[in-house]
Fold this protein.
Amino acid sequence: MLDVRAGKISPRDLFHSQIKIPALTRELRFNRMSDSYDTIIIGAGMSGLAAGIRLAHFDQRVCILERHYTIGGLNSFYRMGGRDYDVGLHAMTNYAKKGTKKGPLAKLIRQLRFSWEDFKLAEQIGSSIRFPGAQLDFSNDIGLLESEIEKNFPGQIDGFRSLCSSLLDYSDMDGDDPRFMQSAREVVASHVSNPLLVEMLICPLMWYGNAREDDMDFGQFCIMFRACYLEGFGRPYKGVRVILKNLVKRFRGLGGELKLRSGVSKIHTDKGRAVGVVLDDGTELQGKRILSSAGNIETLRLVMTSHSPK
Ligand SMILES: Cc1cc2nc3c(=O)[nH]c(=O)nc-3n(C[C@H](O)[C@H](O)[C@H](O)COP(=O)(O)OP(=O)(O)OC[C@H]3O[C@@H](n4cnc5c(N)ncnc54)[C@H](O)[C@@H]3O)c2cc1C
């Protein structure tokens, strides 16, 4: 038997044998250089893991570096006293039923080559926006929110419907489009005249995904409006660990390397391009591409503190 994993077969032997198992050939190729990668990804949260899988599918040698001792980032999990806890995830936005062709979840499942069953998503039963003296229930069927607005804010439903039809679609979303940067409060108020309703509609969207203090970019508002009200919420039956463990299993299965307790302290640049990283313990790794999910400002700080002049 040819024991490729134990290194008892040379690449030449492998060439002459009829073995065509991608994972094994990939492993051999990866053993060539231990500290140089096609892509280095900073952060093993959901975005770092998903990017790693996508790149590994295209036969890239990928290494994900994570400062924490575990995966998941802000959406992590732990077990204590016999109970499972999710750190961040309350519900997953952009829910879609099995077989849906459009929207971010369908695209993600397709691109990462998962099946709908892998994430074991259950649809929400219902949610509620509660302000003193006012309540709006909503579900993954926008009809419920419409009927709630009709009931609780008579005279506002036409404005709400015109707001819905003015939303940017994911497909025509362009960060450079001047509409993207407009004030969401101003756009919503141009359709909906009741200030309390404006506040109630915008509040959950700001909680779920907004970097500004008192307002949202209209483009971001559209993303979150679709994610929360039009597509809605779901949750894996056993919490976020189901998703994260599946992502790691797939990434490692494709030959990807995941290094925990490996914080990046510097990003090296050469002629304006990121070419490598320095870890907290001083280890240096080279990469043709460096992707970071550490955050915009945090990533720039890593580049700024680099020894490189640029
Ligand atoms: C309290 C809370 C509740 C939330 N609830 C929900 C929810 O219910 N539903 C939902 O959809 N979203 C929710 N979110 C948002 C969700 O957590 C984020 O959108 C998601 O975690 C972003 O994933 P990410 O991979 O881009 O970044 P992160 O999760 O932030 O991952 C970045 C990773 O990079 C690592 N890192 C940073 N710097 C370095 C470095 N220098 N070297 C190495 N590693 C580094 C970090 O340790 C981290 O693991 C919630 C967030 C919070 C905080």
Summary: Residues 42-48, 65-68, 73-75, 88-93, 263-264, 293-294, 298 surround flavin-adenine dinucleotide (CB under 6 Å). Confidence is low (pLDDT under 50) at residues 1-33. The two ends are 52 Å apart (CA to CA). The chain is about 35% helix and 20% strand.
